[in-house]
Amino acid sequence: MAKKQKKQSGGTPATVALTAAGAAFTTHAYEHDPAHPSYGEEAAEAMGVSPDRVFKTLVAEVDGRLTVAVVPVSGSLDLKALATAAGGKKAAMADPAATGRRAAPAEAVRLTRTPPPGQTYAMGWNRREEQGQPLRIEHTGSLFTHNSMATLLPASGVGIAVVTNTGMVSGDDAPLLVDGLVDLAEGRTPADRAPFTDTADPVLGLLSLLALGLAVRGVLRAGRWARRPWRGLPRPAARLAPYLLPGLLLLGLPDLFGLLMGRAGTLAQITYVWPALFLWSATTALAATAVLAARGIALFRVRRGRAAGDGTAADGA
């Protein structure tokens, strides 16, 4: 059996082998439906026979050796039984690249890059068409510790893939590199491009220095703050409570980014992919903790001193 093609082809690997061996065979042709989920079941339906009478060839690896198994299309391959029959210990389905066969039909691949009418996204691929620019078909991927992008240029037959070690928290490096490579592939001089961290990192650095400066000021003036005429503890406690927030932010940073970006990560990974962000967060948390501790200690000493003074005055009275 064979799928009927619009153009005359040289046959399947099986019919080519039969012809070379001089074996007689009959071809049963049918119109192939690219949307059908099973080649074998489609062939059985087209010929009007039971799937038990139509067989499929599957290529597996038995102890590293390629082995061909022939089973009815209605069944599945028992890898343990295949290993035993081939005199091996372990069997697994072969990598399509090792068999010289396509991993997926060309039509199926085309469909993954064809979005619904009026949309640009299809099965992970985005069609990018800008005025005066050739069509680009793109797919991006990112985690906390890497950022990647694959781009196809159908007009020139060029494919570009870039993987960087900057994560999704701070990583727009891969798209920027791809844009530059596309410029080169299309004969243009790459434009100057820089990741947003080139701007964000200096800002975070200045904020870290500001936090340290404010912390030094707060620690030095903790005694003056504690000697204010506080009435009871609730009011100074309420003034100190906001200083807990930077520490909570530092501890919750992975969960916050995980919630916003839909990825799981750790504080160590954030330290790796965006050091400036971690340093700012850690510096601010340390500064706030220092002010909180200094003011708390100063307030305790002032209140204890006042209590001692009140006790002495009472004894004198």
Structural description of this entry:
With 317 residues, the chain is an alpha+beta fold. 48% of the residues lie in helices and 17% in strands. The chain contains 12 helices and 10 strands. The protein has helices at residues 13-21, 39-47, 79-85, 96-99, 106-112, 173-185, 197-220, 222-226, 234-240, 245-261, 267-273, 275-316, and strands at 2-4, 29-31, 55-62, 65-72, 91-93, 121-122, 125-128, 136-143, 146-153, 158-164. The strands form 3 sheets. A 5-stranded antiparallel sheet has the order 6-7-8-9-10, with helices on one face. Helix 1 links the parallel strand 1 (2-4) and strand 2. Helix 7 runs parallel beside helix 12 and helix 10 runs antiparallel to helix 12. The protein is elongated. The protein starts with a strand and ends with a helix. Mean pLDDT is 83; it is low at 4-9.
Give the class from helix and strand content and strand pairing: alpha+beta
The overall average pLDDT, rounded, is 83
Q: Over all CA atoms, what is the radius of gyration?
A: 35 Å
- C-alpha end-to-end distance: 115 Å
Major sheet strand order: 6-7-8-9-10
Q: Count every beta strand, where a strand is a DSSP E run of 2 or more residues.
A: 10
Principal-axes shape call: elongated
Helix content: 40-55%
The low-confidence runs, each spanning 5 or more residues with pLDDT under 50, are 4-9
Number of H- or I-type helical stretches: 12
Strand share of the residues?
Answer: 15-25%
Largest sheet: 5 strands, antiparallel
* SSE ordering: EHEHEEHEHHEEEEEHHHHHHH
Entry keywords:
single chain, 317 residues, alpha+beta, 5-stranded antiparallel β-sheet, 3-stranded antiparallel β-sheet, 12 helices, 10 strands, 48% helix, 17% strand
